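Record type: monomer structure entry
Structure origin: computed from sequence
Chain ID: A
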Amino acid sequence: MFPHRDLLAISALAPHEILFLLDEAEQWVKFNRLSQKHDDRLAGLTIINAFFENSTRTLVSFEIAGKRLGADVVNMHAGQSSIKKGETLIDTAMTLNAMHADAIVIRHGSSGAVQLIADKVDCPVLNAGDGQHEHPTQGLLDALTIRSAKGRIDGLSIVICGDVLHSRVARSNILCLTSLGARVRVCAPPALMPLGIEEMKVEAFHDFDKALDGVDVVMMLRLQNERMQGQFIPSPREYRHLYGLTEERLARTRPDTLVMHPGPMNRGIEIDSNVADLVDRSLITRQVEMGVAIRMACLDVLTRGVRQVEGWQ
């Protein structure tokens, strides 16, 4: 039995719990490749996707995951909510709770907002990204992607490059991958490297070419201009020159070094199109596929308690 009611952060999970979720997702990877992709185990349950921050990829992935498991899925967008009219986050939490949802997926621009809502509701809550804190299902899907491609995570050398400072994806990946035994490097311009990052058991680089030496996987991050106030990089052109994953730069890595990006991509800035689309090296579309499987696994696992109470499967 998974001991947690909610999935709010990778930091709350032990290595064996992470592996349990990855193993649970394996069945859904196979299931999603079938022509008939419908399971009724969540039939009768209602899942609310409450997204207070814009998203396409994550929202659609959670929606597909819920529907393929047979749940009734309701999407709530921030622009349509009373938050825009001055309602507090606690009021929103109490409103959602009064609707008797069986699980709530939340994305919010403020770190800690998902925890605040989880404390006020009676059902499982899944964090779909909160501020610069965490994005746990992204960390899990990336780990699943790497394991499916490399056969393992323990002992691999992985570099995460880009806007590490503003990236909840980077944080969740660092926590997840180091927990599972990977050697993680982070690379960023000085202005985009968090202070004390080495405390997270990673090796920090400012020179991308040095960071790439001998790695098994290169994970690129998007420049999050919407979270930047002030001048963090000289120019997009200069950033690409120093930190962009170009075909020439990838050619200096090992032939089996694989490429990842959580999306959405700034093509031609942090990653060139001819690299992102390499059939034999890029895992980017596989990450999207694994995202649906991981979210199905998380929804299934976290609602098992609800279904047992009701006398379901």
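Annotation 1: The first strand starts at residue 46 and ends at 51.
Annotation 2: The beta strands are 46-51, 72-77, 103-108, 125-130, 157-161, 183-187, 203-205, 217-220, 258-260.
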